[in-house]
Amino acid sequence: MNKDFAERNSPKKRKPAARKPAKRRTPTKSKITFHAPSFSSGALVGAVIVLVAAYAPEIIGTSTPSQNTVVETKEAPKISFEFPDLLKNNEVAANPDTYSAPPVSSNAAKVYRIQAASFRNQDDANVLRAKLLLTDLPSSIEASEISGETWYRVVIGPYSKKVNADRAMTRLRQQNLTAIWLN
Prior knowledge:
alpha+beta; Alpha-Beta Plaits; four-stranded antiparallel sheet; 16% strand
Protein backbone atom coordinates (compact mmCIF):
# COMPACT_ATOMS: atom_id res chain seq x y z
CA MET A 1 0.00 0.00 0.00
CA ASN A 2 1.22 3.35 -0.89
CA LYS A 3 0.97 6.22 1.56
CA ASP A 4 1.26 9.85 0.71
CA PHE A 5 3.73 11.25 3.19
CA ALA A 6 3.71 14.75 1.66
CA GLU A 7 0.41 15.69 3.27
CA ARG A 8 1.50 14.39 6.61
CA ASN A 9 4.50 16.73 7.02
CA SER A 10 2.87 19.86 5.54
CA PRO A 11 1.15 22.31 7.86
CA LYS A 12 -2.54 22.11 8.02
CA LYS A 13 -4.34 24.28 5.63
CA ARG A 14 -5.79 27.10 7.57
CA LYS A 15 -9.04 28.62 6.78
CA PRO A 16 -8.91 32.38 6.39
CA ALA A 17 -10.18 34.16 9.47
CA ALA A 18 -13.67 35.42 9.12
CA ARG A 19 -13.84 39.17 9.10
CA LYS A 20 -15.90 40.88 11.65
CA PRO A 21 -18.56 42.99 10.11
CA ALA A 22 -17.68 46.69 10.25
CA LYS A 23 -19.69 48.79 12.61
CA ARG A 24 -22.24 50.82 10.81
CA ARG A 25 -21.71 54.46 11.15
CA THR A 26 -24.50 56.89 10.75
CA PRO A 27 -23.99 58.86 7.61
CA THR A 28 -23.16 62.51 8.16
CA LYS A 29 -24.40 65.25 5.98
CA SER A 30 -21.43 66.31 3.98
CA LYS A 31 -23.39 68.71 1.87
CA ILE A 32 -25.22 71.64 3.38
CA THR A 33 -28.19 72.54 1.28
CA PHE A 34 -30.27 75.66 1.08
CA HIS A 35 -33.64 75.16 2.73
CA ALA A 36 -36.01 77.61 1.08
CA PRO A 37 -38.97 77.25 3.48
CA SER A 38 -36.81 78.01 6.52
CA PHE A 39 -35.26 81.02 4.81
CA SER A 40 -38.63 82.36 3.67
CA SER A 41 -40.24 81.98 7.08
CA GLY A 42 -37.26 83.66 8.77
CA ALA A 43 -37.40 86.59 6.34
CA LEU A 44 -41.16 87.01 6.92
CA VAL A 45 -40.82 86.90 10.70
CA GLY A 46 -37.98 89.45 10.55
CA ALA A 47 -40.01 91.78 8.32
CA VAL A 48 -43.02 91.57 10.67
CA ILE A 49 -40.83 92.42 13.68
CA VAL A 50 -39.33 95.44 11.92
CA LEU A 51 -42.73 96.73 10.81
CA VAL A 52 -44.26 96.28 14.25
CA ALA A 53 -41.36 98.11 15.87
CA ALA A 54 -41.63 100.97 13.37
CA TYR A 55 -45.40 101.45 13.46
CA ALA A 56 -46.23 100.33 17.03
CA PRO A 57 -46.54 103.89 18.42
CA GLU A 58 -48.98 104.83 15.64
CA ILE A 59 -51.02 101.65 16.02
CA ILE A 60 -51.26 101.94 19.79
CA GLY A 61 -52.00 105.64 19.59
CA THR A 62 -49.40 106.83 22.05
CA SER A 63 -47.28 109.76 21.16
CA THR A 64 -45.32 112.36 22.97
CA PRO A 65 -46.84 115.81 23.22
CA SER A 66 -43.81 117.49 21.67
CA GLN A 67 -44.37 115.58 18.43
CA ASN A 68 -47.96 116.67 17.88
CA THR A 69 -47.79 120.30 19.00
CA VAL A 70 -46.15 122.80 16.70
CA VAL A 71 -45.44 126.28 17.99
CA GLU A 72 -45.86 128.92 15.31
CA THR A 73 -46.09 132.01 17.43
CA LYS A 74 -42.61 133.40 16.66
CA GLU A 75 -41.20 134.29 13.28
CA ALA A 76 -37.88 132.90 12.20
CA PRO A 77 -35.04 135.28 13.05
CA LYS A 78 -33.56 137.17 10.15
CA ILE A 79 -29.92 136.39 9.45
CA SER A 80 -27.62 139.34 9.08
CA PHE A 81 -23.91 139.45 8.34
CA GLU A 82 -21.66 142.13 9.82
CA PHE A 83 -18.60 141.79 7.63
CA PRO A 84 -19.83 143.80 4.64
CA ASP A 85 -20.70 146.70 6.95
CA LEU A 86 -17.45 146.54 8.93
CA LEU A 87 -15.14 146.34 5.94
CA LYS A 88 -17.03 148.63 3.59
CA ASN A 89 -15.14 151.83 4.45
CA ASN A 90 -12.03 150.45 6.13
CA GLU A 91 -8.61 149.85 4.63
CA VAL A 92 -6.64 146.75 5.40
CA ALA A 93 -2.87 147.10 5.59
CA ALA A 94 -1.10 144.08 4.16
CA ASN A 95 2.57 143.20 4.06
CA PRO A 96 3.42 142.05 0.52
CA ASP A 97 6.61 140.35 1.72
CA THR A 98 4.55 137.79 3.58
CA TYR A 99 3.25 136.31 0.34
CA SER A 100 6.42 136.48 -1.72
CA ALA A 101 8.34 133.33 -2.58
CA PRO A 102 11.49 132.61 -0.58
CA PRO A 103 14.74 133.34 -2.39
CA VAL A 104 16.10 130.46 -4.41
CA SER A 105 19.17 129.00 -2.75
CA SER A 106 21.87 127.65 -4.97
CA ASN A 107 22.47 123.95 -4.36
CA ALA A 108 25.71 124.07 -6.34
CA ALA A 109 27.69 125.09 -3.26
CA LYS A 110 26.00 122.51 -1.01
CA VAL A 111 28.02 119.39 -0.32
CA TYR A 112 26.48 116.19 1.07
CA ARG A 113 28.50 113.90 3.33
CA ILE A 114 27.49 110.79 5.25
CA GLN A 115 29.04 109.27 8.36
CA ALA A 116 28.93 105.49 7.92
CA ALA A 117 30.31 104.65 11.38
CA SER A 118 32.73 105.81 14.07
CA PHE A 119 35.27 103.69 15.94
CA ARG A 120 37.66 104.09 18.85
CA ASN A 121 40.17 101.84 17.10
CA GLN A 122 41.73 103.07 13.85
CA ASP A 123 42.16 99.50 12.53
CA ASP A 124 38.38 98.92 12.68
CA ALA A 125 37.81 102.15 10.77
CA ASN A 126 40.33 101.08 8.11
CA VAL A 127 38.58 97.70 7.69
CA LEU A 128 35.22 99.38 7.10
CA ARG A 129 36.77 101.95 4.76
CA ALA A 130 38.28 99.12 2.69
CA LYS A 131 34.91 97.36 2.46
CA LEU A 132 33.24 100.59 1.33
CA LEU A 133 35.93 101.26 -1.26
CA LEU A 134 35.38 97.76 -2.67
CA THR A 135 31.66 98.53 -3.04
CA ASP A 136 32.56 101.70 -4.99
CA LEU A 137 31.69 104.21 -2.28
CA PRO A 138 34.21 107.05 -1.87
CA SER A 139 35.20 106.97 1.79
CA SER A 140 37.74 108.58 4.06
CA ILE A 141 38.65 108.54 7.74
CA GLU A 142 38.54 111.63 9.96
CA ALA A 143 39.95 111.65 13.48
CA SER A 144 38.23 113.79 16.11
CA GLU A 145 38.75 114.35 19.83
CA ILE A 146 35.60 113.85 21.96
CA SER A 147 35.73 113.93 25.78
CA GLY A 148 39.47 113.29 25.77
CA GLU A 149 39.18 110.23 23.50
CA THR A 150 40.08 109.94 19.84
CA TRP A 151 37.28 108.68 17.59
CA TYR A 152 37.76 107.71 13.97
CA ARG A 153 34.86 108.50 11.64
CA VAL A 154 34.35 106.72 8.34
CA VAL A 155 32.90 109.38 6.06
CA ILE A 156 31.28 108.83 2.65
CA GLY A 157 31.36 111.59 0.07
CA PRO A 158 31.40 114.46 -0.69
CA TYR A 159 28.51 114.43 -3.14
CA SER A 160 27.39 117.50 -5.03
CA LYS A 161 23.89 116.13 -5.77
CA LYS A 162 21.42 114.96 -3.16
CA VAL A 163 20.29 112.10 -5.41
CA ASN A 164 23.76 110.56 -5.39
CA ALA A 165 23.99 110.96 -1.61
CA ASP A 166 20.61 109.26 -1.19
CA ARG A 167 21.78 106.35 -3.32
CA ALA A 168 24.90 106.00 -1.18
CA MET A 169 22.73 106.08 1.97
CA THR A 170 20.57 103.29 0.52
CA ARG A 171 23.64 101.17 -0.23
CA LEU A 172 24.86 101.68 3.35
CA ARG A 173 21.49 100.54 4.71
CA GLN A 174 21.69 97.43 2.54
CA GLN A 175 24.95 96.63 4.33
CA ASN A 176 23.18 97.08 7.72
CA LEU A 177 25.03 100.27 8.58
CA THR A 178 23.10 102.99 10.38
CA ALA A 179 24.53 106.04 8.71
CA ILE A 180 23.87 109.69 9.55
CA TRP A 181 24.04 112.91 7.55
CA LEU A 182 26.87 115.33 8.22
CA ASN A 183 26.64 119.09 7.70
